[in-house]
Specification:
2 domains; 23 helices; 4-stranded mixed β-sheet; 516 residues; two-stranded antiparallel sheet
Length: 516
């Protein structure tokens, strides 16, 4: 069975000389992009969603960006356990949105992240412009429909930006499915180094690229690419690390690698995240577990058939497949994973999928049998619908703003609560805690705030948190006693003795306390 579908020349980025599909069929590549845009708009444009609290991490990144605009640097002025790349990327947009309001900065970040994720879909199609049209459509549909991508795009999370930089790097690194000329490889390596300032996972595609170059007996280029990546990384982090190099190394690298007392995600849950049906494959839904197994089996069989046909031997295919494999290994090794982590796997899986399905510009066929492709797409759409249905934004902005007067010294265990309430500005003489969870981890050698009594570190946490809580006039808690602020006996006793509840947030979203 054959399938002849194509894309607009401008969208596909086809260089002169590429085989052209009939012009009347060239618009099919718009389908994945429009579908990706529709799903993300449906998710983020629901009433109250743009200025509601949906995550913890996005509050950290947005608050950190606002601090950067005020000249307050991570590592030197406050604890930050992430590299600074997301702050640099988001700063120009945050500066403009902050002219309106603090909640507008978060809303802008969510719209921007969704837009970046849609751009990522188009970049995958552009990288595969030499492939048969159905293979490109399949790859882009995987990017558009994979539930982890939707999860990562709903607010300011790292994976869409990490993917963007890696795909831009791939545009420099490859000319069609072959390695680009040497002069283009170094900028590609530099972009991968820049991506590592967003999230350390970017070293995985950089390592895969070095392996591909070594296998192809180009050691000088391999060394040059690695040096370009390291140089770009160091150049971007130097302004942040210069004032506190030891804290940068400890907070952004070592504490992340040595987390203690953070629960390990079960294997079954990881598989659910990987097949995109984690929210659906609960113990009470055996049918959906079988459907998830079918999805994984379809991918494995497709890769096996492609390997037997030697369809994954070009440099682009080898780079994509090797990167996907090492990302899977990293996600299996990492102690705690979340659904949006798997969004970084998607572009490389999509590029691998797009490399299957016949020779470049040859017979137009899908990389898997049409019936299997339909089943896979249906399962992914089912996961998307469920992701949208269960995604919720806590409407705490107005209640927190009403309970906490402007200008007060306030601490929260979730920085997003203060962002949406317009109470996140740093005050003179007031503790500035951008990332409570990361702060406790950094103080205790990577220990989780919830398990300090069991694994040690309670003394260090008490020495930091108790003086801060004594200086705060208000305390906004999203958790009772199991949140990022460590619930040691000394901290609990201080909170009970010093603070009184002045407001309970709607739908059990937390409490606001005021110093007596």
């Amino acid at each position: 069975m054959t399938l002849t579908i194509g894309a607009p020349e401008q969208l596909a980025g086809r260089p002169a000389g590429d085989a052209q599909a009939p012009r009347g069929q060239q618009w099919w590549l718009l389908v994945p992009i429009l579908l990706a845009l529709l799903l993300r708009l449906v998710l983020i444009l629901r009433p109250g969603y743009l200025t509601g609290v949906t995550e913890y991490d996005d509050g950290v990144y947005v608050t950190g960006t606002l601090r950067l605009l005020q000249g307050v640097l991570p590592y030197r002025n406050y604890v930050d356990v992430s590299p600074p790349g997301i702050l640099l990327l988001f700063a120009p947009f945050a500066a403009i949105a902050h002219l309106v309001s603090t909640p507008a900065v978060l809303a802008t970040g969510r719209v921007l992240t969704s837009a970046v994720d849609v751009i990522d879909v188009g970049l995958v199609g552009r990288l595969l412009r030499h492939r048969p049209i159905p293979a490109r459509v399949a790859a882009m549909l995987l990017m558009a429909l994979y539930p982890a991508e939707l999860e990562a795009a709903h607010t300011v999370l790292l994976e869409p930006y990490l993917t963007l930089l890696c795909l831009l790097a791939a545009r420099c690194l490859f000319d069609r499915d072959q390695l680009a000329p040497g002069r283009r490889l170094l900028p590609g390596g530099a972009l991968l180094g820049a991506a590592a300032t967003v999230k350390a996972f970017a070293v995985l595609p950089l390592g895969a690229l070095v392996v591909v170059l070594l296998v192809r007996r180009r050691p000088a280029l391999a060394g040059g690419v690695a040096a370009a990546g390291a140089g770009a990384f160091l150049a971007l982090v130097a302004p942040f690390a210069a004032g506190a190099p030891r804290r940068f190394l400890t907070e952004a690298v070592l504490d992340q690698l040595s987390r203690i007392g953070v629960g390990r995600t079960p294997v079954a849950t990881r598989l659910g995240y990987g097949d995109g049906l984690a929210a659906l494959t609960s113990p009470g839904a055996p049918l959906l577990e079988v459907m998830g197994a079918v999805l994984v089996a379809a991918v494995l069989v497709t890769l096996l058939r492609a390997g037997l046909r030697r369809e994954l031997t070009t440099p682009l295919a080898a780079f994509s497949l090797l990167t996907a494999v090492v990302i899977v290994g990293a996600l299996a090794w990492t102690g705690t994973v979340y659904p949006h982590y798997f969004a970084f796997l998607t572009p490389f899986a999509a590029l691998t999928l797009g490399s299957i399905g016949g020779p470049p510009n040859g017979r137009h066929r899908l990389p898997m049998r049409p019936a299997v492709a339909v089943v896979v797409a249906a399962l992914l759409i089912l996961g998307d619908v469920h992701t949208i249905a269960v995604s919720d934004a806590r409407q705490v902005g107005s209640p927190v703003a009403a309970a906490v007067p402007s200008g007060m010294c306030v601490i929260s265990d979730n920085p997003g609560y203060l962002l949406v309430a317009g109470r996140s500005e740093v005050r003179r003489g007031c503790p500035d805690v951008v990332d409570p969870f990361g702060t406790t981890m950094a103080l205790t050698g990577g220990r989780s705030p919830q398990n300090l009594e069991r694994y040690g570190g309670a003394g260090a946490a008490n020495r930091y948190w108790i003086p801060l809580l004594r200086r705060a006039r208000y305390l906004v808690l999203s958790w009772e006693w199991t949140g990022p602020i460590p619930a040691t006996p000394a901290v609990r006793a201080l909170i009970r003795r010093r603070f009184t509840v002045v407001a309970r947030l709607p739908r059990g979203a937390g409490t606001v306390l005021r110093a007596r």
